[in-house]
Request: fold
Amino acid sequence: MKKIFVGNFSWNTTEDELKDLFAEHGTVESCIVVKDRETGRSRGFGFIEMDEAGANAAISALDGVEVDGRALRVNEADNKPRGDRGGSRGGGQRGGGNRW
Reply:
């Protein structure tokens, strides 16, 4: 199983449309369009999981292809550990002084 990053697609592209596009190259195991938490609107990128051969074929065939007036960016997804977003989101004080 290989995870593919798909970026730069129209905000109107649905998971079904994306799945159908990739299914031309092999069996799609999963398809996720990443959405904004607050608005529920697509963020214009997502992830596809396919078998190795299908994923390689899809990456070669679809990277740079124009869909709905936008050139897709298609490549193998980086496997980053879940929960590790890097950096600090606050809580600690910098500079050692009181904030107020």
Notes: The radius of gyration is 18 Å. The beta strands are 2-7, 28-35, 42-50, 66-67, 70-71, 73-76.
